[in-house]
Write a structure and sequence with these properties.
By secondary structure, the chain is an alpha+beta fold. The protein is built from four helices and eight strands; from the N terminus they run E-H-E-H-E-E-H-E-H-E-E-E. The chain has helices at residues 14-31, 55-68, 96-111, 137-147, and strands at 5-10, 43-50, 73-83, 87-93, 127-131, 153-158, 160-166, 171-178. The chain has a four-stranded antiparallel sheet. The protein has a four-stranded antiparallel sheet with strand order 5-4-3-6. The termini are far apart.
């Protein structure tokens, strides 16, 4: 059998996750796009990758130590954005604290040779996806006409990173690593 799929992300608090889930359910009902429902609301730091079953246990000490050195930041949700005619997302500001966590994590994982460079994006555009892969181009244009002017606000404290694991159907938060420093 194939080794399991994992990814590393920042997951907002339960309240915001629930509000984002409602947006994803709306996308499913109105525009037939349900793929984004497979994951909790998140900002991807390392895109999905396959590793052995024990990967989580092996890398937990490293991820724990990394997170302990990170400072929490307040992140605001700021309406919606899109990529090409494929993805609709909740836009986030400020982006720099999220990018900094990504840059530092990437550097650590490359230095420890846990990943080859091509497996970790050199840069991220931080966002929370609400519709992706199964959104047809036609439905993208209909949805974007509605969401491009729609407001969505909220905020969360970025105070941890999470390792997620695919259970064969959906993604589960396997473990959360809390930031150590206080803002």
């Amino acid at each position: 059998p194939m080794p399991p799929l994992w990814y590393i992300a920042i997951i907002p608090d339960k309240d915001l996750c629930e509000r984002v889930k409602q947006l994803k359910l709306e996308m499913k009902e109105k525009y037939g796009s349900s793929h984004a429902l497979k994951s909790p609301a998140h900002v991807t730091l390392v895109m999905p990758f396959r590793r052995i079953e024990g990967f989580g246990d092996e890398t937990s000490p490293l991820l724990s130590e990394f997170a302990a050195g990170c400072r929490p930041h307040q992140i605001e949700c700021d309406g919606f954005g899109s990529f090409e005619a494929k993805v609709i997302y909740v836009d986030l500001n400020p982006k720099e604290p999220l990018r900094e966590v990504h840059r530092n994590l990437r550097e650590l994982l490359l230095t420890k040779e846990i990943f080859p460079p091509k497996q970790i994006w050199p840069k991220i555009n931080p966002h929370i996806t609400i519709a992706t892969r199964d959104l047809t181009e036609d439905n993208f244009h209909k949805a974007w006409a509605e969401y491009s002017d729609r407001s969505f606000s909220g905020s969360f404290e970025m105070n941890s990173i999470s390792l997620l694991k695919h259970n064969g159907k959906d993604w589960d938060e396997w473990r959360r690593f809390d930031f150590g420093q206080r803002s």
